[in-house]
Amino acid sequence: MSQTASDPAAQKVCPAYSIALNEIEPEYDGQWQGITVASDGNCYFGSSTHSYRHGAGFFRFDSRTRELTTLADDMTAICGEDLTKTPSQGKIHSPIVEHDGWLYFTTHLSNYWKEAIDSYTGAHVIGYEMSTGRFRDFGIVRPRYSIYSFINVDPDRKKLYVFSVPFAEEDQESGGCNVYRINIPTGEMEDLGGPAGKGRNASFWSYVDLDGNCWFTMWGAGGRFSAGGQGNLYRVAAVSGQIESFDDVLPEAKLWPNGKRCSDEFQTDRSWTWAQSLPGRAHCLFAMGFGGGDDERLWVFDPRKNIATGAAFQPVGFIGSVFLALALGRDRVFYIQRGDPASHRGYSGEAKRDEDPDVVGKNEDYHLKSISLAAGTYGQVTDHGAILDQKGRAPRMVDSLAADQEGRAYMVGSWHVIPGDRPTLQIDLENPEVFQTMKRGQFFAVCDVSDDIA
Known about the structure:
Blueprint: H1 8-11, E1 13-20, E2 35-37, E3 43-47, E4 57-62, E5 67-72, H2 75-78, E6 97-99, E7 102-106, H3 114-119, E8 124-129, E9 134-140, E10 146-154, E11 159-165, H4 169-174, E12 178-183, E13 189-191, E14 206-208, E15 214-216, E16 233-236, E17 243-246, E18 254-255, E19 260-261, H5 264-267, E20 274-277, E21 284-287, E22 297-301, E23 313-318, E24 326-329, E25 332-338, H6 341-344, H7 349-352, H8 357-360, E26 366-372, E27 381-389, E28 395-403, E29 408-415, E30 425-428, E31 431-437, E32 441-448
């Protein structure tokens, strides 16, 4: 199916209902990951900061009543820490996973200047019991290390997996990224070692299969990380906890719409930029998007098939360039992308969102799209239209997306502001004593496209 800006579908509007999060806290300024639709039907999500004055918030949205509830104004307090003494727990920059009525996620450092990184206490693993509203703090996994950023659960063994990462230069020189396994009933933490040597890397997503093995990759990130990409896939054995490497096995990266091969430089970055198990956990969906080889397809991974020959990897279809904002819901995968997929290549909303909208105009052109997993329409892409909220605002960056079984997609991101809105108040990373009023705001939004996919 063609996807171009001239198509009638590209001109369609996808109505969104949005809520301004800066009315709750002006310093909420972004969000990667940290969103889910839970078994109770509610959407749970975080909103993050780069501030030493305020940490991340955690929220619940009821799609039936459109009621937004603040569950935690600042995760620093939930972690038992004092902002006057230590840097904030400024982000929920991880997936949110569910098991036995609990949601599990991790915190991440907020302040990216050296003094703050060096004094960061370390990332916490947090549980939230939906029925009672009770938080459980498992504590710091590794002192000063953050979690960047996957967390996943082995439901049969009641274990959590997290990816611990050094950010302080001293820690990067003496150690590297390690996988930790946490016993949920006891809270005991087990260091399983790392897949690479010293230095900082990233692994945003993982997959726990039917046998309890935890699979992951490390983000290529355009060569910025020491051991990411390379087409490597890793498996943590459920019983032994040993990490096994499958080198250079991920599929060759190709472009929409005709399968042109990506450059050799991009091939070295091949890694998961999104992954989600299908119901039953026998298979996993994944994409290798921005900084992960820039492949423009959605894939299915079957760990019981031959990995070396490529039989374990089967394409669903071409979707164009993507990054973190994908979500499995109903019988399809939703994703955020500009109307013309070719124009989305290399397009960073986070970089563009601070360009002056009075100069560049409202040209981000973000659309909600989906690709079908249903038997009769498998691999077909639907463009649900350009996202526009109830007051005419459009998003400027979305890297946090979830979906439910009713045809609703939920997102957190930076949006254009209109007169009367309270904009984001964000720290100047070059001068941390200064907070700047941005020409954008932080919003939660939901789009109902059930009519499109009926």
